[in-house]
Amino acid sequence: MRAVPDPRCGRETKHDHAEVLVCLVAGFLAGRTTIRRSLKWCKKHLEELREYLPLKNGIASPSTACRLLSGIDEELFALEFMEWIGEIMDTKGIHLAVDGKALRAGMEKVKDFRAPMILNAVDAATGLVAAQMPIKNKDCEIKAIPELLKLLDIKGSVVTADAVGTQTQIMEQILSQEGHFVLMVKKNQPQSYEEIVKYFGEMSEDYKRTKED
């Protein structure tokens, strides 16, 4: 996290920014879903955390963490986090579920007072986040999914997504990385939807005729 610049530069600070970020990540990985709960978890495990971090002034307050998060380079932070995850997690040959979430209960609102959106690629078997990327809103998922997948080695993996991810460029990106996909088709893709309905309808009729014979 040291590669992420401290947006508080020029001001006297009590807590090291990299340590604050690591503590937040540790809390979220421990299952805490808000900044306040993550930092509370860190306080309970302070001595354990000090085996890896100095934390000479203890754990930062939620207000300090919020100020830090409101000014950091979100993309760089996400890349550093994913690089670390990539060192401990193999994303080949697994089921990756891609979905965007609004963190209404997961983070205090920052900047323009809207809940931040995060696009995640999650290992469906373990629930671990293999990669994530901040996005402005749900409509940005279509462009962001290919960029998210480029950060991962998905050879042999099966990628699933909801209907918003059923796009030609996303399927081409998955295939170019030697992955597989199972995507949801709804009426937002009318031609594909009608073809699938027709195909399975014909299969059903063929099955009925075979059974009657």
Write the layout of secondary structure elements.
Blueprint: H1 17-29, H2 35-44, H3 46-49, H4 62-71, H5 74-88, E1 95-102, E2 117-123, E3 129-135, H6 141-150, E4 158-161, H7 168-176, E5 180-183, H8 190-212
Parallel strand pairs: 1-4, 4-5
Antiparallel strand pairs: 1-2, 2-3
Helix pairs in contact: 1-2, 6-7
Provide an overview of this structure.
α1 (17-29) packs across α2 (35-44) and α6 packs parallel to α7 (168-176). 44% of the residues lie in helices and 14% in strands. The protein is of the alpha/beta class and 213 residues long. It has a 5-stranded mixed β-sheet. The protein is built from 8 helices and 5 strands, in the order αααααβββαβαβα.
- CATH class term of the largest domain: Alpha Beta
Low-pLDDT stretches: none
Order of helices and strands: HHHHHEEEHEHEH
For the largest sheet, list the strands in their spatial order: 3-2-1-4-5
List keywords for this structure.
8 helices, alpha/beta, Nucleotidyltransferase, domain 5, five-stranded mixed β-sheet, 14% strand
